[in-house]
């Protein structure tokens, strides 16, 4: 057979025969080998099969308990400025803009606005959890169930500090509901599923993982969010976040978004915080939290060494509020709280949440380290809602030129006596005593620790100071002894410790 005829014959063969011919003739097939496609199928069947995770079962079980929430709110009045004057200069106006601007935006008249969010049923009697910001100031709330029914809802109670609200609807029959899971058991990397009402589109599901735990986004005093990368958008607020077992382990609350849409950074309130709030809202319509009455800060290595504490775990008491439960129990500035009612305290956040979980009026045992020794204090918690505002760092007012008399250069600071005029200008209480910092040299030890002009040194190494000479002598002694001094510094309405290292 000529070479050209052989090539034609090979082109006409099926793929399996062509491969056999290329390997030396038809003998390969005559030995009983399966066709090429069958051999490939056998090889594939022998390999371990991988099935992509599916949330279909979870969605099917959970979706009937997830609801859409529509609200109508009364907004502030339209600005009295004419609509023509208020129109952006770089945006052209159309005839429709003229019509709506002229006839529907009446200056000085309150406006009605519609909003939407999500929620989920946690009790067959019709109790629904959502975010406070979804229903706050709502004039009308309508809940749309998964089967399309629309029901009027009332607010049983809300908790702005945790951004949660509990609604109730009357469906005339038991409703499908979901159960909470243990958010403390959630690990970074766990699969999660978010169901909600993004952009008002209706029930939608999105999946992702837990990206981080314990996120503080500065939205309130009890920030402790789960960060998730499951896409959530506007309208998802108040919706549930499920684990792979179909348990609610979080409530979608906020996103980080430069463009208004999901970029994979969302935040959910952990379910263990939610259940504690929902229980109280269901009982009384409000949330009562315990109050200790201290200003706190976290320990670092420098502060721990200055206080004679072995580890950086605990919450350092920087101020005790006058007339508070802490003062009555004998707390002192400089105490390090290590246990509260039998629970270990590793940080300020631990203590803040632990105190808040307890009801006012409860008596608890608190363990502190004071002067290197452990002590136990008995305290009866007060009510956070009725307590005075917690101390916080205030803003810095500019110093007057004449405040520099009596300066002393120590650790890069220049100091001056504290006068009544300084107290007024800096917003300090009249009973605050100490020495005023009027200047801090850049790059100095004081600058490295964040000290600044307008701060007031209240004590050095736990000893009160009333004059520049007091501070000078105390800092000089500390520098000669071990090169480290512990300063208690007042800034605005709050105070904190600073470990000043002269080395």
Task: Explain this structure.
The protein has 503 residues and is an alpha+beta fold. It has 4 domains: 3-46, no CATH class; 55-287, Beta Barrel (Thrombin, subunit H), CATH 2.40.10.120; 290-386, PDZ domain (Pdz3 Domain, Roll), CATH 2.30.42; 401-501, Roll (Pdz3 Domain), CATH 2.30.42.60. It is 23% helix and 32% strand. The strands form 5 sheets. Strands 5-4-1-2-3-7-6 form a 7-stranded antiparallel sheet. The model is unreliable at 6-33, 80-85, 95-106 and 389-409 (pLDDT under 50).
**Tell me about the biggest sheet?**
7 strands, antiparallel
Query: What is the number of domains?
Result: 4
Rg result: 33 Å
Kindly state the number of beta strands: 27
Task: Please tell me the overall pLDDT.
Answer: 82
Shape: elongated
CATH architecture of the largest domain: Beta Barrel
CATH C-level name of the largest domain: Mainly Beta
Pick out the low-confidence regions.
Answer: 6-33, 80-85, 95-106, 389-409
* Class by alpha and beta content: alpha+beta
SS summary, helix count: 15
Instruction: Write the CATH fold name of the largest domain.
Output: Thrombin, subunit H
Give the strand order of the largest sheet, numbering strands 1, 2, ... along the chain. 5-4-1-2-3-7-6
Helix content: 10-25%
Percent strand equals 25-35%
Which SSEs are present, and which pair or pack?
Elements: H1 3-12, H2 15-22, H3 27-30, H4 36-46, H5 56-62, E1 66-77, H6 83-86, H7 95-103, E2 110-123, E3 127-130, H8 132-135, E4 138-144, E5 150-152, E6 154-159, E7 164-168, E8 191-196, E9 204-215, E10 225-228, E11 240-242, E12 248-255, E13 266-270, H9 271-284, E14 290-291, E15 294-298, H10 301-307, E16 315-320, H11 325-329, E17 336-340, E18 343-344, H12 348-357, E19 363-370, E20 373-380, E21 382-383, E22 413-417, H13 420-426, E23 435-440, H14 445-448, E24 456-460, E25 463-464, H15 468-481, E26 484-491, E27 494-501
Antiparallel strand pairs: 1-2, 1-4, 2-3, 3-7, 4-5, 6-7, 8-9, 8-11, 9-10, 10-13, 11-12, 12-13, 14-21, 15-16, 16-17, 17-18, 17-19, 19-20, 22-23, 23-24, 24-25, 24-26, 26-27
């Amino acid at each position: 057979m000529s070479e050209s005829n052989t090539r034609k014959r090979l082109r006409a063969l099926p793929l399996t025969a062509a491969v056999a011919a290329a390997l030396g003739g038809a003998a390969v097939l005559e030995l009983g080998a399966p066709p090429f496609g069958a051999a490939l199928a056998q090889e594939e069947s022998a390999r371990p099969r991988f099935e992509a995770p599916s949330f279909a079962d979870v969605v099917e079980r959970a979706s009937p308990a997830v609801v859409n929430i529509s609200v109508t709110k009364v907004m502030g009045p339209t600005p009295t400025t004419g609509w023509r004057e208020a129109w952006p200069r770089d945006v052209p106006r159309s005839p429709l803009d003229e019509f709506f601007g002229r006839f529907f935006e009446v200056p000085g008249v309150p406006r009605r606005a519609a909003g939407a969010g999500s929620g989920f049923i946690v009790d067959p009697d019709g109790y629904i959890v959502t975010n406070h910001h979804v229903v706050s100031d709502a004039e009308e709330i309508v809940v749309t169930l998964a089967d399309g029914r629309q029901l009027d809802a009332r607010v049983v109670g809300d908790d702005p500090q945790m951004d949660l609200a509990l609604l109730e609807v009357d469906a005339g029959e038991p409703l499908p509901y979901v159960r909470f899971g243990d958010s403390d058991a959630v690990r970074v990397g766990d699969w999660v599923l978010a169901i909600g009402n993004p952009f008002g589109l209706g029930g939608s599901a999105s999946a992702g993982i837990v990206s981080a735990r314990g996120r503080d986004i500065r939205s309130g005093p009890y920030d402790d969010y789960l960060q998730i990368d499951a896409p959530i958008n506007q309208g998802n607020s108040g919706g549930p976040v499920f684990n792979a077992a179909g348990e609610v382990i979080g409530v979608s609350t906020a996103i980080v978004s430069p463009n208004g849409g999901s970029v994979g950074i969302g935040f959910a309130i952990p379910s263990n915080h939610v259940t504690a709030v929902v229980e109280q809202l269901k009982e009384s319509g409000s949330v009562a939290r315990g109050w200790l009455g201290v200003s706190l800060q976290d320990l670092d290595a420098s502060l721990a060494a200055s206080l004679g504490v072995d580890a950086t775990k605990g919450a350092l008491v920087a101020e005790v509020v006058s007339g508070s439960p802490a003062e009555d129990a004998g707390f002192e500035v400089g105490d390090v709280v290590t246990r509260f009612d039998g629970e270990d305290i590793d940080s300020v956040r631990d203590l803040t949440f632990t105190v808040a979980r307890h009801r006012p009026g409860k008596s608890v045992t608190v363990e502190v380290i004071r002067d290197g020794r452990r002590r136990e204090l008995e305290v009866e918690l007060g009510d956070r809602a009725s307590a005075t505002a917690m101390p916080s760092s205030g803003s810095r007012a500019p110093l007057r030129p004449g405040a520099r008399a009596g300066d002393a250069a120590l650790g890069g600071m220049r100091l001056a006596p504290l006068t009544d005029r300084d107290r007024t200008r800096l917003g300090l209480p009249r009973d605050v005593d100490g020495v005023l910092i009027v200047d801090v040299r850049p790059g100095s030890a004081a600058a490295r620790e964040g000290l600044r002009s307008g701060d007031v040194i209240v004590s050095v190494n736990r000893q009160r100071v009333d004059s520049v000479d007091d501070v000078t002598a105390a800092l000089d002694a500390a520098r000669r002894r071990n090169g480290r001094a512990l300063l208690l510094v007042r800034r605005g309405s709050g105070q904190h410790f600073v470990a000043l290292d002269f080395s």
